[in-house]
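Q: For a teaching session next week I want to show students how multiple molecules come together into a single three-dimensional assembly. I've collected the sequence lines for a complex. Could you give me the predicted structure tokens for the whole thing so I can convert them for display?
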Amino acid sequence: MIVYILCFILFLVGLYGIITRRNLIKIVISLSIMEFSVFLFLVLIGYIDSGVAPIVDPGNPTEKYVDPLPQAMVLTAIVIGLATTAMLLAIAIRLYRKYKTFDIREINNLRG
Amino acid sequence: MKGMSIIVKKIAQLISGFIFLYGIYIIIHGHLTPGGGFAGGAIIAGAYILNILAFGSDAVNLRNKEKGSSLSESLAIFIVLMLAIFALFIGSRVFLSNYLPKGQLGEIISAGVIPLYNIFIGIEVAAAIITIFLALIIFKEETKR
Amino acid sequence: MELTLSILIGFMIVGALFAIHAGDLLSAVITTGIVGYSLVIAFLLLKAPDLAIVQIVIETITLIIMVAVVLDSTREELKVKNDFKSYANILLSLIFSAVLLFFFLESISGLNLFGEHTLRMSEAYITEATEKTGSINLVTGVLFDFRGYDTLGEATILFAAALGVLTVLRIKSKK
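A: Of course. Below is the structure for the complete assembly, covering every listed component.
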């Protein structure tokens, strides 16, 4: 159980970063930390003690495999994570070229 | 963007081909060993990014490359969709069903339509990552003061 | 096993805290790599080789893109003096954390202990995957056969994200 709680603390660290930081790059970093903790939590749930990786040996099939379903879901989520991070970075650099700063509060004041 | 020193160029020249081959191996053995379209596509994109970073390129050249990569990305996802729709006309007439013969378990040519999905998803992932990278690099080149 | 993973996740938490508080953007970006690459080791320990391969490549590419963006703009962290609003934000995040942690502890009491997962949904996937799909890598079998809709949606999102990056970076800025 302690592993689940530590994993959730990692999520909370990312949330703390998103709420308190004012730099756009730091916000992107915090968002990817939250992403990582969610991936880890999903894979932790599917783990089985003394289970083997979910690849069948056609000669002698064993009974205990770890759960393949969360792994398949996380596999797609990792690639989406790269795409969303790149999208956020593109928006960030676009804002930097316009306002010459990464400070979201200042960008909010300069708007209009 | 200008390239790096001669040592980096030579090493990149030597190993990027092997990385590319490894990516193709991961893709076509996706149903037998760990890996598959997503992992192999990302590895191929990594080899390509290594080449661009080591050798450098100018904006016009990068634009042509970007045209190719976005075209192949669109074509790959279109073919994936067509493979899925094709299942509506064959066999059990269920969307996304596996309509080709399954073959011998553990052979390279087996598992019906799964290797085809793997190959085209691999192309799609590789082209998407390359397109994102090229777009960022072109933006950097064109707005340089 | 649980102890090893706990130490690894503790290491990730320290790395994440340093990345958020670093005084320099470049070191913050590099420190994010601690979290990402520790995740690769965690996936290997959790018997997920597919995920480890994907994560190690994707993490490297993410780092390259982030470093390129930081070097292209600025690597200096903002110099902000703490005013009332920032203290209010810290208080707000602590309150959020406490509330979320309470509900998390409530909800995981229904889960099995770590390592004693019972297969309910994937029972059929594991026993029937080799006959129904012909693929001996069960993750690929689930990904492209049983859960094909998810993969198709994922490919669409990737396509949309690439289009989004192109659109955001292509607009001619009005002077």
